[in-house]
Each structure stands twice: as structure tokens, then as C-alpha cells.
User: What shape does this take?
Amino acid sequence: MIAPPLREIRADIAASREDTRVGFAAIDTRLDKLERRFDNLREAVNGESVRGRYAAAEVEGRPDAIERRLAQLETRG
Assistant: This one.
């Protein structure tokens, strides 16, 4: 009398475990995709900031060069 219901319970538990495994596999796949997207975004942001630093360094050097030229012109004139 007890054995058949126990078998059904065991079968239900096994099916539930399989459903859980499949669900976690889907979640893992989605998380992997998100992690790759975040890595790509992080690389893009870092690349932009490096490019911005080079541009800023170039702009910062221009006033110094202009001031040197102006000083040379003033000493000549």
C-alpha cells in the first residue's frame, strides 16, 4: 500500500529536479550572455576614456605652444 505512492513521489521529485536543472541551465546561459555584454561595454568605455585622455593631452599642449610662440614674437618685436 505504501510502496506505490512512494514511487509516485520519487518520480515527481526526480522530474522536479530535472526541471530545476533545465531552468538553471537557461539562467546560466542568460547570465553568460549578460557578462559578455558587460565585458564588451567595459572595454568600449575604457577605450573611449583612453582616447579622451589622448585628446585632452593634445589640447592641453596647445596653449603652452601658443604662449611660447607669443613670447618669441614679443621678444623679436
